[in-house]
Amino acid sequence: MTYFKQELAARLTKQLFPPILFCMTTKKYPLAVIGGGAAGMMALLRATLNNDEVLFFPGHFGVRKKSREMWINRVENMPTFAEYKKGIADPNRKTLKWILDCEFKENVHHMKGLGVTKLKKNDDGTFTLVDNEGTEYLASYVILATGCMDVQPMIGGSHQAILPYANAQKVEYCARCDGHHTHKQHTVILGHGAGAASVASLLAERYRHPSMTILTNGEEPGWDDDRKIILEKYRIDVNKKKIKEIVGEPKKGDLQGFRFEDDSLVQATYAFISLGMILYNELALEVGAEVDDRGFVVTDKIGHTNIDGFYVAGDLRAGIKNQIYTAWDSAVDSADHINARLRETKRTLILNNPDY
Ligand SMILES: Cc1cc2nc3c(=O)[nH]c(=O)nc-3n(C[C@H](O)[C@H](O)[C@H](O)COP(=O)(O)OP(=O)(O)OC[C@H]3O[C@@H](n4cnc5c(N)ncnc54)[C@H](O)[C@@H]3O)c2cc1C
Q1: Domains located in the chain, CATH noted
Q2: pLDDT digit string (tens) for 188-203?
Q3: Contact (Cβ atoms closer than 8 angstroms) between residue 254 and residue 267
Q4: Residue nearest to atom 17 of ligand 1 (CA)
Q5: CB 174 near ligand 1, within 6 Å
Q6: Looking at residues 317-341, what average pLDDT do you find?
Q7: Dihedral (Cα; 41, 47, 53, 56), 10-degree rounding
Q8: Ligand 1 mean position to 108 CA, how many Å?
């Protein structure tokens, strides 16, 4: 019976018989990859090429639509990637197709449309994963690559108002990726923390702007006096009024400015959002992995956490750049380290077997 058939049989068994009978049939997979964005796809590709058997959960609809994987449009800071409309989803689709057709395809268990909702470390060192349909799986190693999402501003009582402009790439979130779009544009930064002030100064140092304003949207600024001096030198205005509405044509993604509750207006043809991130770290917390004060998962250089066998790659890992290429690199480090441990186990078995 192929493993795909085994999985199908396991799901049917679970629907027809009590859970105790199902647990007795659970197979142990060497590696599970959770997340199908930049890091998850690279972890799957690397593990597949290493000839390791992988259980791959790209995520169910509810989580995918809230991920950067689905959110990213054109990627201009990686060679040749500008040709994709969706800079992560489009190349990932091609890559998955290739993986599922390659020489090692029998090793790949693509849990299409499924995400992981529970994760537990067992006493014997293995991990139990439960998907969003309630099916359980066992794995020796786990790479978590569930990423994060940017906090959206509340405008006119809704987080939705900004989205049409974000889809048109007139509102951006990542200065390293899209800062160049602000060149020669009336630009605003939405945010009130030290991060917003440093994004504003960075953009002002790199590009030319006819005007730049930080909109705190009713919040008190959270940067220190040194930063205040820099903002003043660069003639970056700080507007603390509450935003009432966005001025522009949402259907065309044509941004013109932001109107405040006193009906005054700040002109803007480009906006950057700097309000922090929502981290998808629930599964890491469930297994007891250490997180930093912002919620990013603390790991060593190759992504190994304080929980043996549990690795984190991509944006969720503390201390790395939140970029596609770093997500890839971090995923390769973790997948290769797991492969080294699997090979070591195999080697020990071979060396201890006199009949080999
Ligand atoms: C607007 C914007 C533009 C950007 N532009 C660029 C750019 O031009 N260049 C660049 O290098 N970087 C860019 N980035 C950064 C880049 O998007 C991230 O660094 C990258 O997506 C991180 O990859 P990841 O795999 O960690 O997370 P993601 O790509 O977000 O993937 C997370 C995955 O986890 C899955 N998932 C979540 N929860 C679960 C679960 N419970 N079970 C299973 N799966 C789950 C989701 O379905 C998704 O597949 C941009 C970011 C933003 C916000």
Answers
A1: 3-149+277-351 (3.50.50.60), 152-273 (3.50.50.60)
A2: 999 999 999 999 999 9
A3: no
A4: 68
A5: yes
A6: 97
A7: -10
A8: 22
